[in-house]
Amino acid sequence: MMILIAGPYRSCTNDDPALINNNVRAMTEIALDVYHLGHVPILGEWLALPLIEAAGSKELGDEIFSEIFHPVATSLIVFCDAILRIGGQSTGADEMVAQGKAKGKSIFYSLNEIPSAQI
Question: Number of folded domains in the chain?
Fold first, then answer.
């Protein structure tokens, strides 16, 4: 399965870059666990952040950031089989879960819920 990892990015960070990096690191680490289960993990951040930089965003949450960040992540839902919701409070991650449910995607809330597969 291709599994979208949905977790906090900016939530509860007060836009502190170190805390945001911790959030991305947490999602990336669990993505590696998902890969070891035999699935293809994806984070919207992996695609959106380079695009945001290339588009010339000057600060977190500016118009360019807002135009790209969540739309890229939510557009991935159509290509994924499932969503793994991790971490704490996040309006964006909760929205991805809601959209995934509406599209009939499997929703996991723990790595233990994901079945192992062969690569």
Answer: 1
Half-sphere exposure of 27 (CA within 13 A, CB side): 27
pLDDT tens-digit series, residues 90-99:
999 999 999 9
Q: In CATH, what number is assigned to the domain containing residue 60?
A: 3.40.50.10400
Domain annotation covers residue 83: yes
Would the pTM count as exceeding 0.85? yes
Amino acid at 116: S
φ/ψ of 23, rounded to 5, equals -65, -45
Report how far apart, in Å, the C-alpha atoms of 61 and of each of 3, 17, 107 are: 26, 13, 28
Tokens representing 62 are 């500016």
Provide the β-strand partners of residue 90: none
Q: What residues make up the domain containing 64?
A: 2-113
Residues 6+ apart with CB under 8 A from 41: 2, 3, 4, 5, 30, 31, 32, 34, 35, 84
